[in-house]
Structure formats: C-alpha cells, structure tokens
C-alpha cells in the first residue's frame, strides 16, 4: 500500500503549493475581503474586534464597556459594542480507496496523492485565513492555527495506516464515500474523490447533508487516462476495487461510448450537487494543482455564508 | 546428402517442414496475440459498453512474417546446408589420413594441415572414425602409433603435428600399417610430400598396402610446388660454391639464396638459375674474404624446409691459436706472466697451443700470438714473416724488449724508440683512458669501460697511413692497437704489454672481447685436423621449417668421423655440432642422396573451402526469436515503454561496442593527436594544475603575463600557457613546467612520478615555487611550501641543490640580474649544483620561494593582479626579467655560459 508513503509526500507537496499562496490570497481578497480576515461578523452585537455600534448607557451595564472618549463629546454616556464574530469550520474529506491509487503514467502522481495535496493545501490556506479545519469522520475536533497542514497530514497518515492494517470489505479506505457522520448544521464541506462509485450511493449522502443545510463542494480528481481513454487494441481491463475484469478486443471502438458515459456521469453529479446547493468541479492529475485549489477557494469565497 | 549446385544438405528430408509454413501462417493469423492487462479504476463505466464491430484483433502481418521467418530459418538450418561440400567418402569404413611429415612437407605445411582438418570435419559429419598415419619418425626414432580415433581427437592431434627436418620412412609406415588390424574398407587419403623415398619401391609398397585396405587417393602439392634442396656448399679459396637440386626439370627456375652470418645478419644475396632441362644449378657466392669467413648459413628465400638451408662450418673451420714462447714456466706465472693473461682470455672458447715457433708453424694454426718476452732470432723472424704473408695472423704485444728495438720490422707501423710513461713520478700526464673504437676497426662497437688506464705504451712514428692502421686509440689520440695487412695475412700490435704492468687492459673484459674479435678475423685452419673420435655435442638444430632453434630432446652427440656420412634422423637432425666457437655443420643434403619425384599418380591438393551454414542460420533464428519475445512482451504491455527504449538503446550500444571496439580508442587517439598538434604549434609555458582553483588561476594569469612580456621583448614565440595534469597529460612538449606548491595538491601517483623523472631526464625543466617567502622570510625557518615540496617530490629524481651562484647562467640568460624578486623578495633561488657532465650542466630543477606567478599575473586588461611587496614597479619589472631569463634558460640551456659571450657581457658590465 503506497498511501502511507504518499501522505508524507503530499505534506511536502502541499507545502510547496501553499507556498505559492500569497498571490492566491490577493486574488481571493479581491473577491471577498472577509475571507482573508477569517473571522466572520454575525451582524449583531457580540464578542469580537470590529466596532458595531454605540449604545446609550443604561444602569446595570458593565463600566468597562464604556466608551469614554465618545461619552466626553456629548452629554450622554455611550457604550461601545462590537460585532459578534465567529470562525467557520470547514470539513474536508478525500477518497483513499484503492481506485484512487492509480496513475496511468510513471511521471504522473496518483489520484490519491493529488487529492491529499489539494486537501492539505486547502487546509493550509483556510488556516491562514483563520478558519477552523477538520477531517470529515475524524474524531479529532476542528483545529486552527499555524501547523494545521502538518497536523492534518499526520491524521491522514494515521488513517492510511489504519486502513493498511484493516483489510476487508468494511475497511474505511475501501469506501469510496465519506463515513456517514453527522456534520453540524450549516457547516461547510469539501469532498475530493474520483466519484466513480454508483451515483445512487452518493445521492443519499448528499441529500442527508442538504437536509442539515451543510453546503459544500465536490472536486472530482481523475487520471488523464480515465478522461481520455487512450488505450488501443486488445486489452484486458482490471478493476481496482474488485469490480472484476473486462476483455475488450478493440478498445478504440468503444472510446466514444466511454467518453459519453463519463460525461453523463459527471453531468449527473453536477445536477445532484446543484440540487443540494453544492458545487462541482473536475481536475485531471496531469494538470497543475494550483488552479484546482484556486477554484475551490473561489467557491468558498463566493459562498454567501462566509461573508454573512 | 542432397546437393543443388554448390549447395548441399546433410539432412534434406527436414526441408519437408517448409511445406508446413502456410499452415503455420494460417494458425498465427487466427490466434490473436495475448491482450494487454491494464488496471483501470473507471472500469464501472466500461461495463455494459458494446463495441460496434466485433472483428477480432488480429496478429499484425509483420509479426506473422517474423515468426514464419524464424520457422523457415530453423527448418533450413536444421537441414544442415553446406556450400562447396566435400565429396562423401566412397567406402563405409573410417578415414585413414596418411600424412608425409618429413622435411619436404615444410613449405606447404599449413595448407596440408588445413586440408587434413577439412577431411576430418567431413568424416565427423559422416560419423566416421579417423586413423592418422604419419611417415616421418618421431624424436624417439619410432613412428607415431596408429589407432582409430574420434574426429575430435584426430583434429587435435593433427593440429599439434609439426614437420620433421629429416626424411620420411615409408617402409616403417607400411610395417606399422601391417601390424595394425584395420578393416578392409578404409577411405585412405595420402597427403604426400611429392618426393620419392630413398628406395623407390617403398613408395609403391606402401601404396599397394593401402590399396589392399580400401580406396586410396594420393594428393600432393601439385606440379608447381617442387621442393628444392640446397646441397652441401663447397668452400674454395675463391668463394663458396652453392649447388641446388630440384625434382622436376623442364622449365627455367630462379631462386634467391641469402648468405647469413652467425647472428642472422645478411651478408649477401645470391641468385641461382636452373636451366630448363637441368635438375641442378650451381652458383658461386662471391664475398670478400672477411665476410666469407663470417658466412654461416645459406638460406633459400621462401624455402621453409630443412632442405632449404645449408649450414657452413664456423669460419670455414676451427681456429687453433698458437702462443710462441721460449719459457712457458716464466710466462705462465699467475698474475705476472704474459701467457697467463692470454691463456685466460682465449682458453675457454678456443684451442690454445703453447710452444716454440718451429712446432707451431708446423701445425695448422690460424693465429699466432707473440708475447714480448719471447726473443726471436733472425731466421725465426723470417719464418714468421713468411707464415704471416701466407695468410696467418700475428698478434704481438709491446714490452721492454720491443721498446728497446725500434727497428723491428714485424710490426704494422714503425715505432719510435723508447716508450711513453704516463702518470709516473716524473710525468705531468695522468694515466690515459681508451677512446671509442673507430668504426673501421675490427673492435668497432665494443663498449669501452671507463676504468681502463694505460700507464705505458710504445708510440708509433707518425705516418700518413697511421690513422687507417689504428684499430684502437687512447683518449689523447695515440694508437693502442695497430693492425695492417702483410701479404695475405695480418699483423696486429698491442702497444701495451699483455700483462698488467703497462695497463689495466689485460685485466678487463674488453681484453677478452678484443681477442675474440681478432680470432673471428683470423682465417680458419684447413679442415681435416678434426679430432675424429671426439664426440661433438649438438649446438643448434634445424626444425621442420628450416629455422635454427634449440636442441630438442633425443639428439645425440656425433663424432667428427661420422659427421660426413651421418644418417640424418631423430638422433642426428641437421644443425650445428661441436663447440659453440667452432661449430661443424651437418646438412640434410648429406642424407638425401636421391631427389626424385614420387612415382605415383597424385591429385593436386586443393581445399574445397566448405562453408557450413547451420550455425549461422540457427544463430539468426535464435536472435529473431529473442526479438519476437521482446515484441510479444511489448504487445502485452509487460515492457514499460522507457525500458523498451532503454533496452533497445542498450542493445544498439552493445552491438556498436562489439562492432567498433576500436573506435573509442581511435577517437581518443584523434583527440590526443589534436592536443599534440596544438601543443607543438608553438612553445607553451606550462603550469602544474594543483587542484586548488585559486592557485591554478594565479599560475595561469602569471604565465599569461610572462608570455606577453616574452612576446614583446624577445624572439621567443610562445603560445598561451597550458595547465597540465600530472596524472594524465603528456609533459614532453613543454620546455618549462611551473609548479606552484599548494598544500592541497594530491601526492603524484608512481606513474606520474615516473613521467616526471622521464621529463627531467629528457631535458625538461621544472620551476618549483614554494611561494612562502612571506612566511619563511619573516621567521627565517623552512616555510610550509618548502616542507610540502619535499613531500610532493618524493620519488622524483632531484639532484642535490645549491643556492644559485653569482655567475650562474640564470643571471645572464637574457637580462643581467643580481637577484630574483617575485611577489616577495629575499627568497633564495636553488639550482642543481653545476656538473657539466650531466645534462650539459643545465639544471633540471629550479626552486624559488618568492611567489613569482603572483608577480607576473595580469588580468584580462593587462593590469597586474597582485601588489608586490615591498613594492615598486621596479620589483615587478625585475620579476618579469627573471621570468624571461628562466624561459631563456629552459630553452637555450648553457648557451650563455659559453665563453664566446664573455666579451659582450663584460662590455655590458662596463668593465
């Protein structure tokens, strides 16, 4: 199993990608300044750093809330009230099933590798913005701060090691779907996978999320061979999750059918995501990782509740 | 066996397999290649997809073609095709190969062996045994035992056979054949040497004996190859008469015979012409008597047999040497007497007889030695004079008696009265050594030891012809040995005594060598004086190819009496017998009384040059099979593509490496040629690359600065400086090697040290710069550079060094200099202590410590790179001037130390 190794490598690579983030942050700032600020105003009075309003003093108010300077300008005594602000928690998940451990060419990263890189890079960006990050289905509470990427990488490695020890149908990494955990209502989620498992399994999950008003983003990571089906001639295909084998005497003759079917599958996923209020994007492992990260970021920045 | 023209098949029925090729083609076409196996995560999407057309994937046509080619090659290869196949043997029994390996088979031995091997190979193909029967006796006197051998054994034994230098014995061969019990269906091939046996009926008998046992084919070298036998040469006063015999007359024939001396040096070439109808030819070898006496062998060019070489007795005979004395006891006194030294010098290799003159002149004597103590009366003198004029050689030694009688006429040159004493109590002169021998002298080429000193000598009267009579002279030009022709004989006089009184000559090995040369020069005594009963040991024997080689086992000494009509065979092969100085020749021609061609119908021996295609075809099929395997693997996706490329590249590289093994070397040679040409276009200053980048850069910049100065101010045409790596580069081309001592330089390898020593011995100059004057100048102790220098130059051939003297050539090679500043001042410059005998007194090593390269160093704009200390442009100028002097010194050596330049230098100095 190479996933344990790739978690380490992903940590290093995500650091490299996240290292390119200052310009990414600037781009994000242009879209929504509040994202970079990290802590989101709730448009009502509460604890926070941003000034919200002055309110006349009523007996019983705490004296330390008095705005002495403002009070000195007039006859009335004012309190200074701040906007209530709170950080968002983003739940991240990436697919570590065997089907992700695939690269059609030596020089390409495997899908799992690229997924983990993107996940860690995203966590790094989010933590810099002050958000809290958690792995979906992980018992650890959401974390924030500086070394989020490192800690998540450790968690990922732990998960892959657990998966390595436990084999069998119910092993966690064998599942191409996130564990059926309850996310807090109104939470954010980002799910990275190849989403090649039957769509019906997925529909239920997404509907459950939508019911709790969990919004999120689906990122489909595919190998270029899966996107383009470049094989020729007589080929015996072998599934990676015990789907069985399939002998094709002339692969080139079914290429168009395959591409149509893949497009249909993607369209179905996109529709499903739209109905649940989620968004959907795709990424091929032969493309650089940064644009995919930017897409994720743009979606998060455009999410109204991040600004709310 | 089936044959089509020149092509034959050993197993033709296998070719039927070719008919199966179309079936194979059909089968291959039908069977699709194994599919590639590809893991694919999106396989779920593939389930349920139906291909539009169901044409099965077929094997590509080129792969079918390749496999058909493999099958065809296999079938054709296994059917064992042969080109120019030999005819199969007619009888069912084994092959009997009768091989004449006597002296006459020498010239075409290789061809004979190759033909035999082809026959054996054919027998091997037909699964027959082989019997090998040779007709010449082996060194033990018997023929090779015959037995039925496997083809492999026979081939190995045949390859090991060599021709013998004696005749064949076919009668014995027949006996051997009769004794062996072979079947009567032999296939016999007789590779004959084309000569009849001594008794011609033996040939017929052997042929009949062979015919009784099967079919016989006689083969010989064909009518063109006629063995030629050089007969015993005849020695006559006019020269050597050479006779040659051949077996077949009918056409004129011209042969060349070369005359060689003992050391195989050619003395001359004689052409012998056979007239058309004649079987023998005669030629006279016309050589000057000196050369004739040296002639030792007459060799037929291109002969290659024991019959194509005629040996001559050494110098035409033995050379007894007579020493005339009237008082043998006195003369033989150990370490004092003259006879003692003469005997010790001559006796080991020569026959020395001591007696009075009358006894000696009565015997055949080739050289008479007359010591000084022997007094001769007038009549004895006359006898001796006559003896010399008849062709004898008289060797005299000087002494008190001769110096007292200057009017002695029995000397090569007139003598002055008295003798000359060198190095005595009243003499200024030192004892003199010998000069090299003149090239016309009989002693020419002998090495002259340095430690021979002559204290006394008799002097010859100066005369016009004295120079030509002088065979050896002293360093001051006076003759030491004179010699002259008198009548037919020779008179030789040693101007010193034969003992150690007058000189060290008699004590030296040179004395022995000189006397040996004189003995060589002397005419031989007439033959017939040989001690007929004395056994003569073998010295050098001829082999079957007519080459003089060592003495093989089984050769016995032969008495002189038997030498004339010895039976030549394994016990007495032709060659030289006797003592090494007086060898007697035993020639093959003495044993070959009759030289007649073999009286049997024979076919000419021509090789068929059979080519066996089987291994080649099978190898090709195997290679194609490997290619097919690779293709099949690639089609199944089991070869990763880069690996395929790598493997292909590797295979190609390997093939290239195999085919063009020499090409990298050739390229390397070209490169080094280019370097050599570049290095020799102009003289280049060179520096040793120490491996420390900053040191090397400074060296380069320094030599560049010096090169600029040289080009501006002198006529020295120097090119850009060159950095040399001591381990790899050739130093030969650089007159001067600047070697800055760097602490980080690695110790030179032994090979590099060896090269450096050769460089120094070959006239190179190394300038070591320890560059530590800034350190050692302050402390006054040995600096770090000097210590490192001692380590680095371990093993190098560096003579003792001294501080450069004030009048050394380095101070005036171009500029007149008093001191030698570099970047620092004050460091002393060390050179070899002057010793004019070695390398003209030019120092091979100069050691300085003033960091000269830094003082010379300039940058790309011609500006100095480093400041000089204590400073001033005058110091830098002086550093350049020293550099110019150094380069001049390395190029011109001690030219400026020649006194010719002194006036000009004095004038410059203003004195």
Automatic annotation (TrEMBL), chain A:
Transmembrane segments: none
Protein name: DUF58 domain-containing protein
Ranges for domain DUF58: 54-267
Ranges for region Disordered: 158-178
Composition bias, Polar residues: 159-170
Source taxon at top rank: Bacteria
Coiled-coil portions: 248-275
Transmembrane among keywords: no
Pfam families named among the record's database cross-references: DUF58
UniProt keyword list: Coiled coil
TrEMBL record, chain B:
Domain Aerotolerance regulator N-terminal: 7-81
Protein name, as recorded: DUF4159 domain-containing protein
CDD domains for the chain: A4_beta-galactosidase_middle_domain
Record key words, sorted: Membrane, Transmembrane, Transmembrane helix
Domain DUF4159: 684-891
InterPro entries: Aerotolerance_reg_N, Class_I_gatase-like, Double_TM_dom, DUF4159
Chain ranges passing through the membrane: 6-28, 61-83, 616-635, 647-666
Tagged with keyword Kinase: no
Keyword Transmembrane helix belongs to the record: yes
Natural source organism: Dongia sedimenti
Pfam families the record matches: BatA, DUF4159
């Amino acid at each position: 199993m190479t996933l344990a190794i790739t978690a380490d490598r992903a940590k290093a690579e995500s650091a490299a990608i996240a290292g390119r983030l200052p310009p990414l942050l600037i781009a994000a700032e242009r879209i929504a300044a509040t994202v970079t600020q990290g802590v989101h105003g709730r448009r009502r009075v509460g604890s926070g750093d941003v000034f919200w309003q002055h309110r006349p003093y009523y007996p019983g108010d705490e004296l330390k809330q008095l705005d002495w300077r403002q009070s000195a300008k007039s006859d009335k005594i004012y309190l200074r009230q701040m906007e209530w602000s709170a950080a968002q928690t983003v739940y991240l998940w990436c697919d570590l099933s065997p089907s992700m451990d695939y690269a059609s060419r030596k020089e390409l990263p495997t899908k799992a590798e690229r997924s983990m890189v993107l996940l860690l890079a995203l966590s790094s960006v989010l933590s810099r913005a002050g958000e809290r990050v958690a792995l979906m289905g992980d018992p650890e509470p959401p974390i924030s701060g500086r070394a989020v990427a490192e800690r998540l990488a450790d968690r990922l490695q732990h998960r892959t090691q657990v998966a390595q020890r436990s084999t069998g149908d119910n092993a966690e990494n064998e599942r191409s779907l996130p564990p059926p955990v309850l996310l807090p209502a109104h939470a954010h989620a980002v799910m990275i996978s190849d989403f090649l498992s039957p769509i019906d399994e997925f529909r239920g999950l997404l509907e459950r999320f939508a019911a709790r008003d969990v919004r999120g983003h689906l990122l489909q990571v595919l190998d270029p061979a899966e996107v383009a089906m470049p094989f020729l001639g007589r080929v015996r295909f072998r599934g990676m999750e015990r789907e069985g084998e399939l002998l094709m005497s002339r692969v080139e003759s079914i290429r168009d059918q395959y591409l149509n079917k893949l497009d249909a599958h993607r369209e179905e996923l996109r529709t499903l995501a739209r109905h649940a209020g989620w968004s959907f994007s795709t990424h091929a492992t032969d493309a650089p990782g940064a644009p995919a990260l930017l897409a994720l970021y743009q979606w998060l920045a455009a999410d109204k509740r991040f600004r709310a | 066996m089936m044959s089509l023209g020149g092509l034959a098949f050993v197993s033709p029925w296998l070719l039927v397999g070719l008919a199966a090729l179309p079936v194979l083609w059909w089968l291959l076409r039908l069977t699709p290649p194994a599919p590639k196996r590809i893991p694919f995560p999106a396989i779920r999407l593939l389930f349920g997809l139906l291909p539009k057309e169901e044409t099965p994937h077929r094997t590509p046509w080129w792969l079918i073609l390749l496999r058909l080619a493999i099958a065809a090659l296999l079938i054709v290869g296994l059917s064992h095709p042969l080109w120019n196949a030999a005819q199969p043997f007619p009888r069912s029994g084994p092959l009997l190969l009768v091989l004449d390996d006597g002296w006459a088979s020498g010239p075409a031995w290789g061809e004979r062996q190759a033909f035999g091997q082809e026959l054996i190979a054919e027998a091997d193909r037909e699964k027959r045994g082989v019997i090998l029967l040779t007709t010449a006796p082996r060194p033990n006197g018997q023929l090779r035992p015959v037995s039925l051998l496997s083809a492999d054994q026979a081939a190995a034994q045949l390859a090991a056979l060599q021709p013998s230098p004696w005749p064949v014995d076919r009668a014995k061969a027949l006996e051997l054949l009769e004794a062996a019990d072979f079947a009567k269906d032999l296939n016999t091939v007789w590779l004959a040497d084309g000569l009849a046996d001594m008794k011609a009926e033996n040939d017929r008998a052997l042929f009949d004996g062979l015919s009784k046992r099967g079919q016989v084919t006689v083969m010989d070298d064909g009518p063109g190859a006629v063995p030629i036998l050089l007969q015993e040469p005849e020695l006559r006063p006019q020269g050597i008469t050479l006779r040659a015999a051949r077996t077949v007359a009918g056409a004129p024939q011209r042969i060349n015979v070369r005359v060689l001396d003992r050391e195989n040096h050619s003395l001359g070439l004689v052409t012998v012409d056979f007239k058309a109808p004649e079987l023998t030819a005669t030629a006279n070898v016309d050589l000057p008597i000196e050369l004739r006496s040296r002639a030792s062998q007459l060799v037929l060019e291109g002969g290659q047999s024991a019959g194509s070489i005629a040996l001559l007795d050494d110098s035409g005979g033995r050379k007894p040497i007579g020493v005339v004395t009237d008082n043998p006891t006195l003369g033989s006194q150990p370490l004092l007497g003259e006879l003692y030294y003469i005997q010790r010098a001559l006796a080991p290799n020569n026959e020395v007889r001591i007696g009075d003159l009358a006894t000696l002149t009565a015997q055949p004597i080739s050289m008479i030695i007359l010591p000084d103590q022997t007094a001769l009366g007038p009549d004895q003198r006359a006898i001796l004079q006559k003896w010399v004029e008849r062709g004898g050689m008289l060797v005299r030694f000087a002494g008190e008696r001769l110096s007292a009688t200057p009017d002695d006429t029995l000397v090569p040159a007139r003598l002055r009265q008295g003798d000359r004493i060198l190095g005595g109590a009243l003499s200024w002169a030192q004892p003199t050594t010998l000069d090299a021998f003149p090239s016309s002298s009989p002693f020419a080429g002998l090495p002259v030891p340095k430690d021979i000193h002559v204290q006394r000598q008799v002097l010859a009267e100066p005369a016009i012809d004295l120079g030509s009579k002088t065979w050896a002279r002293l360093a001051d030009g006076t003759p030491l040995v004179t010699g002259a022709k008198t009548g037919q004989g020779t008179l030789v006089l040693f101007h010193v005594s034969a003992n150690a009184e007058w000189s060290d000559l008699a004590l030296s090995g040179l004395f022995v060598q000189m006397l040996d040369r004189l003995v060589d020069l002397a005419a031989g005594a007439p033959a017939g004086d040989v001690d007929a009963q004395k056994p003569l040991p073998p010295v050098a024997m001829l082999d079957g190819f007519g080459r003089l080689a060592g003495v093989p086992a089984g050769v016995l000494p032969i008495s002189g009496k038997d030498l004339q009509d010895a039976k030549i065979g394994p016990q007495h092969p032709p060659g030289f017998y006797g003592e090494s100085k007086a060898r007697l020749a035993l020639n093959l021609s003495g044993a070959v009384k009759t030289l007649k061609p073999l009286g049997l119908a024979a076919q000419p021996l021509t090789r068929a040059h059979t080519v066996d295609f089987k291994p080649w075809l099978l190898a090709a099929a195997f290679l194609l099979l490997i290619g097919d395997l690779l293709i099949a693997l690639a089609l199944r996706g089991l070869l990763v593509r880069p690996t395929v490329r790598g493997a292909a590249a590797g295979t190609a590289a390997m093939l290239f490496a195999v085919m063009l093994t020499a090409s990298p070397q050739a390229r390397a040679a070209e490169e080094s040629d280019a370097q050599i040409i570049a290095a020799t276009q102009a003289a280049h200053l060179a520096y040793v690359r120490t491996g420390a980048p900053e040191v090397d850069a400074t060296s380069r910049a320094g030599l560049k600065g010096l090169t600029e100065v040289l080009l501006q101010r002198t006529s020295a045409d120097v090119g850009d400086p060159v950095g040399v790596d001591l381990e790899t580069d050739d130093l030969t081309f650089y007159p001067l090697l600047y070697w800055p001592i760097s602490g980080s330089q690695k110790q030179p390898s032994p090979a590099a040290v060896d090269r450096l020593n050769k460089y120094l011995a070959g006239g190179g100059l190394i300038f070591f710069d320890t560059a530590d004057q800034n350190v050692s100048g302050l402390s006054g102790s040995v600096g770090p550079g000097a210590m490192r220098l001692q380590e680095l130059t371990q093993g190098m051939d560096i003579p003792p060094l001294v501080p450069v003297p004030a009048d050394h050539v380095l101070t005036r090679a171009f500029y007149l200099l008093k001191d030698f500043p570099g970047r620092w001042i004050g460091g002393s410059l060390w050179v070899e202590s002057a010793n004019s005998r070695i390398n003209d007194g030019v120092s091979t090593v100069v050691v300085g410590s003033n960091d000269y390269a830094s003082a010379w160093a300039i940058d790309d704009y011609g500006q100095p790179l480093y400041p000089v200390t204590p400073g001033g442009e005058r110091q830098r100028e002086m550093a350049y001037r020293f550099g110019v002097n150094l380069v001049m010194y390395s190029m011109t050596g001690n030219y400026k130390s020649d006194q010719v330049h002194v006036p000009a230098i004095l004038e410059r100095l203003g004195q």
